[in-house]
């Protein structure tokens, strides 16, 4: 994919260019938590084995989504934390940033979640995530040999 | 940047890749005919068409969401309007109209003026119980299930059986909230 390249491992990481060559890691999950796709371009530190890593990531996002929806100050009180929510209620978060990385997230109404970890100076990646989603549709959903719910090869 | 609003069905229909309508109709006809030869029982064929539609629907929903660029619908009424106006237009090139809402807003009928699947089709006497377009019921059911709505979709009126138009009834059984799939222990 020309769209994302690896970033160089150098003492001072290059600033993100206009073309966006700075994705570090990408995950894709379906609504049941199965990790459909995982790709890393630059991940110097590895702490967990892949299964735990996927579970952790999925759990994190699931909880964050729930939390942000429940803590929404602009909507009517929706019940306590932990009550399962109907999709469509409340706001959803789309990115968080730490001092070393930025994580961008997109969820489609059908439960497909796309996560991109990039350099913290990256701008808003929502359009890019939508583009990835449409690529997914084009090449994966339309592929007759693909079994929904299994990892993409 | 301002978010792009949902695109209309016409705009998307103009942009997607299309196949020849007759090819589509004839291919569908060949599928139904083959199913009838293989299974011989009309009820079995109906079920099989519904199942095929369901499988198609579960994949179709992603394409629909990606191309139509919509966020979640607030309630079932909006969902039904979306399906009728944008969905049908995008995939079949025809629009449906939504009628007959019940009091709670969970059940509606969709009327299709024209149906590209049934051009050139006539049902013989041996297949009178066949719902020729049952695949459409399955598609809607499959697609809605992937957005957490359990529905039941049936045919109310069918031109091949002697009525004057195609009418589908879509009933919302329940909305299923998302659950955390892993157990609480690691």
From TrEMBL, chain A:
- The entry's protein name is Trafficking protein particle complex subunit
Q: Which family does it belong to?
A: Belongs to the TRAPP small subunits family. BET5 subfamily.
Q: Where in the cell is it found?
A: Endoplasmic reticulum; Golgi apparatus, cis-Golgi network
Q: Which Gene3D superfamilies match?
A: 3.30.450.70
> Keyword set for this entry?
Endoplasmic reticulum, ER-Golgi transport, Golgi apparatus, Transport
Endoplasmic reticulum found in the keyword field: yes
Instruction: Provide the species name.
Output: Eucalyptus grandis (Flooded gum)
- SUPFAM superfamilies recorded: SNARE-like
Pfam families (UniProt xref) = Sybindin (PF04099)
The Gene Ontology biological process terms listed for this entry are: endoplasmic reticulum to Golgi vesicle-mediated transport
| Taxonomic superkingdom | Eukaryota
Instruction: State whether it acts alone or in a complex, and with which partners, per the record.
Output: Part of the multisubunit transport protein particle (TRAPP) complex.
Q: Which GO terms describe its cellular component?
A: endoplasmic reticulum; Golgi apparatus; TRAPP complex
Lineage, broadest ranks:
Eukaryota, Viridiplantae, Streptophyta, Embryophyta, Tracheophyta
UniProtKB/TrEMBL annotation, chain B:
Q: Name one GO biological process term.
A: intra-Golgi vesicle-mediated transport
Q: Which UniProt keywords apply?
A: Endoplasmic reticulum, ER-Golgi transport, Golgi apparatus, Transport
GO cellular component terms given for this protein = cis-Golgi network membrane; cytosol; endoplasmic reticulum; TRAPP complex
**Where, per UniProt, does this protein localize?**
Endoplasmic reticulum; Golgi apparatus, cis-Golgi network
Keyword check for Endoplasmic reticulum: yes
The superkingdom listed in its UniProt entry is: Eukaryota
Per its UniProt record, what Pfam families does this chain match? TRAPP
The protein's predominant localisation is endoplasmic reticulum
| InterPro entries per record | Bet3, NO_sig/Golgi_transp_ligand-bd, TRAPP_component
Q: Which family is it part of?
A: Belongs to the TRAPP small subunits family. BET3 subfamily.
Q: What is the recorded function of this protein according to its Swiss-Prot or TrEMBL entry? A: May play a role in vesicular transport from endoplasmic reticulum to Golgi.
Tell me, how does this one assemble?
A: Homodimer.
Q: From the Swiss-Prot or TrEMBL record, give the protein name.
A: Trafficking protein particle complex subunit
């Amino acid at each position: 994919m020309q769209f994302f390249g690896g970033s160089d491992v150098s003492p001072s990481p290059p600033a993100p260019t206009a073309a966006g060559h700075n994705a570090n890691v990408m995950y894709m999950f379906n609504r049941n938590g199965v990790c459909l796709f995982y790709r890393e371009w630059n991940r110097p530190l590895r702490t967990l084995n892949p299964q735990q890593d996927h579970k952790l990531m999925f759990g994190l996002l699931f909880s964050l989504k729930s939390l942000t929806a429940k803590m929404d100050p602009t909507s009517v009180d929706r019940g306590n934390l932990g009550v399962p929510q109907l999709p469509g209620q409340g706001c959803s978060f789309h990115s968080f940033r730490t001092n070393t990385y930025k994580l961008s997230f997109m969820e489609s109404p059908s439960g497909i979640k796309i996560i991109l970890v990039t350099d913290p100076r990256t701008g808003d990646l929502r359009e890019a995530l939508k583009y990835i989603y449409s690529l997914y549709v084009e090449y994966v959903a339309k592929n007759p040999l693909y079994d929904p719910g299994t990892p993409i090869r | 940047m301002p978010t792009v609003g949902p695109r209309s069905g016409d705009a998307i229909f103009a942009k997607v890749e299309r196949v020849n309508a007759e090819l589509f109709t004839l291919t569908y006809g060949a599928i139904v005919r083959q199913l009838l030869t293989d299974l011989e029982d009309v009820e079995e064929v109906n079920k099989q068409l519904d199942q095929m539609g369901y499988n198609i629907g579960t994949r179709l929903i992603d394409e629909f969401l990606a191309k139509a660029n919509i966020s979640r619908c607030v309630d079932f009424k909006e969902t039904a309007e979306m399906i009728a106006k944008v969905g049908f237009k995008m995939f079949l090139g025809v629009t449906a109209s939504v009628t007959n809402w019940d009091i709670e807003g969970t059940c509606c009928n969709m009327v299709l003026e024209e149906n590209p699947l049934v051009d050139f089709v006539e049902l013989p006497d041996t297949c009178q119980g066949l719902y020729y377009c049952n695949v459409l019921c399955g598609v809607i059911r499959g697609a809605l299930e992937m957005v957490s709505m359990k529905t039941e979709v049936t045919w109310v009126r069918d031109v091949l059986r002697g009525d004057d138009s195609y009418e589908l009834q879509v009933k919302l059984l329940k909305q299923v909230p998302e659950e955390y799939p892993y157990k609480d222990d690691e």
